[in-house]
Structures are given as structure tokens and as C-alpha cells.
Amino acid sequence: MQGFNTSPLRDFFDGIRFALQVKTDVGRFAYELADAEPVTFQPAKYGKLHTPEQPPSIDQAQHAAERLRLSEDCFSDSGAPAGYRRLDNHRVVFSGMAAATYQNLSTGEIIVAFRGSELGKTDFAADVQLTNGGVPQQIYDALNYLRDVEQAYPGANISLTGISLGGTLASVAALASGRPAVVFNDIGLNPATIGVIEQSLSARGKPSTDWHAHARQIVHFNAKGEYVSDGDRQMDAGTLGRDNHQYGDIFYLDVSDWQPIAFGVAIDQDARPITTHYPLALKRALSSLSNPAYRQDPKDRTAVGSNELIDHPIDSSGDAVDFILGAAMYGQNSQQSIQDETSGQTFISQNRARIGRRN
């Protein structure tokens, strides 16, 4: 990552500073700005709900782990995970929408990874709009960017991914296009956003209800008890927000072995855990689920909902340091967005009336 100071001590103290900022900003969003998740159980729509006792298959878990790597990597502006190359970076300064496009070096598949919320005001403003029934400009920009990628790589096998706000953007693009998506801890979609998807389909000469079938191409992975996707602890399709839902298949993962404890004190003592919203806890869970030796039937790679985990070794001793260093990198990667805001370049624009118009 360009501009990242590699001094371990500096990284550690930067991480503490950014970790505190994350806790403050995200906590304020979770408790003060966003509408609470409805208390009634929300069933799955156009997919199935899976509790931790009904895990993804080994193959699904390995695929999801790969997508999570890309969802995390797209927060930086260069490089790519092993086995991939970065084809493009995209940032819409005015709305804050950011994404990266990758290519799988083995298969040629194109993957668009939408960046989740960064520190600063712009992304959190988009989150607040989504959880309070609005449609932020980032929704339109995500649809436009996918269209650009489709035009740049005609006939290519294109899929989508993202975490948090990025997962919501990937879901929107998937519902409007029929492209498959794997997303993590996303905010879900409100009725107004579904309306934008229906407009997009109609503008392309397709039935506005096609998104129902497209939803079956989306797979959500949520950390159990995480404050955005499971704030009410019901493990349902409802998410943080006035009337937000996840559409498609939903897997809730047990992240109870994620324990960021520093000097005997838990970093995350909130009723709605904030640290589980970020990739580290899900990475741990998917790593276990991806290991055939940790399943009841190591030879069955395709069973969904039945091949449970067995007891296996877990080392949580480094979780606090991992979170602090991860927060340092997250904070550093957010600096461009923060600079755009402080220089007066960023604003939340009004929703575009016509699908396809570019900034």
C-alpha cells in the first residue's frame, strides 16, 4: 500500500488511534443515526436462511474466503491477492463510491469488488440514507461502474463481491444484472433501492421483476450477532435499518472464537459487537469451514447445511494485535476519502433521475 509506514511500533500506535476512531464513528452510526432493525423475524426472500449449525459446503466456504480476500484488498489502491491481478481502480469523488476490478489468473474470471465504508463522513452518510429508507448516489454509481466493466470486457464471466456498504452495492448490481455475488455483513436493501433496481431493469428492456430470479445468485455471509446484519440476534433476513432486507441465500457464521483481548480487557464489549463487522472474524470462521479436516465428513465437499464443524484448535491470542494493525491499515486506506472531504471536493448529490448518467 502506497504511503503506509512499515515501522511496527508506529503501525501499532496508529492502529490504536484508528481503532478508537472506528469504535467512535461506527458506534455513533449504530446507536444514534441508523434506524434499528425491526424486532419481528424477517424470513428469507428468494433464498434460504442457514444458521451456524447449517454451514456452507467446503467448496462454498473456500470460494467465500477467496471473495473475502478481494473484498478486503479493494480498500487499498494497488496490488492484488495471490492468484489475481488488479485491472482497474474506480472512485467517484462526489459520492464516495469506490471499487476495484480483478481478474483470476487461472480462470480469467472478472471480479468487481465494491469498497465498504471508510472513515469520514461520505460513506457514513450513505449508510444513514440506506438505513433510513433513502437511496444514496453510490447506488447509481455502482450500477454505472458495473456497466462500464461489462462494456470493457464483453462476454466475460463477471461476478461481484463486497463487505458492509460494499456488500450492499454488490447486491444492488447483482439484482440489476443477474451477475452472481458473494457479500459479507451487508446493510441490505430498502424498498426505495429495490425501486431503483426495477427502474434499471426496465431501462434495459427487461421485466422489472427479473431481480427476483437474480436474487438466487447472491450468497450472504454474516457474522452471528454482528450489529449491522444481526443486531437483533435473530439470524434472519432483516438488517439494521427501517425496512432493510438481504435477498438470496444467507449463511450466519459462528464467530465466538474471535476474541480481541488486550491486557486482559476485551476491546469490543458492546451489546452490538463492532469488531465482528470487519473481515478478521469472518476470515477466521471461513478458514475453519474451508478445512476438510475440521468437518464431520472431510470427503464431502458439496453438502450444504449438514456437514458441521467438529472441535478443532483455535488460537485467539493474537486477535487484539491483528485488529489494531488492521485498524491502522484501514485508517491509512481511508485517508484519500478524508482528504477529499476536508478539501471541500466531496458532497452527497441528489439521486439521479435517469439510470446510466455518469459523473
Model description:
The chain is α/β, with parallel strands linked by helices. It is 37% helix and 13% strand. The protein has 10 helices and 10 strands. The strands form 2 sheets. The protein has an 8-stranded mixed sheet with strand order 1-8-7-6-5-4-3-2, with helices on both faces. Strands 9-10 form a two-stranded antiparallel sheet. A hairpin with a 2-residue loop joins β9 and β10. α5 packs parallel to α6. It is globular and about 50 Å long. The protein starts with 7 loop residues before the first helix and ends in a 17-residue tail after the last helix. The N terminus and C terminus are likely disordered.
Structural class: alpha/beta
The number of distinct β-strands equals 10
Low-confidence stretches: 1-5, 346-359
Order of helices and strands: HEHEEEHHEHEHHEEEEHHH
Adjacency order of strands in the biggest sheet: 1-8-7-6-5-4-3-2
- Give the C-alpha Rg: 19 Å
Summed over residues and divided by their number, the pLDDT gives a mean of: 85
Q: Helix fraction?
A: 25-40%
Q: What general form does the structure show? A: globular
Share in β-strands: 5-15%
Count of alpha/pi helices: 10
Outline the biggest β-sheet.
8 strands, mixed
Cα distance, first to last residue?
27 Å
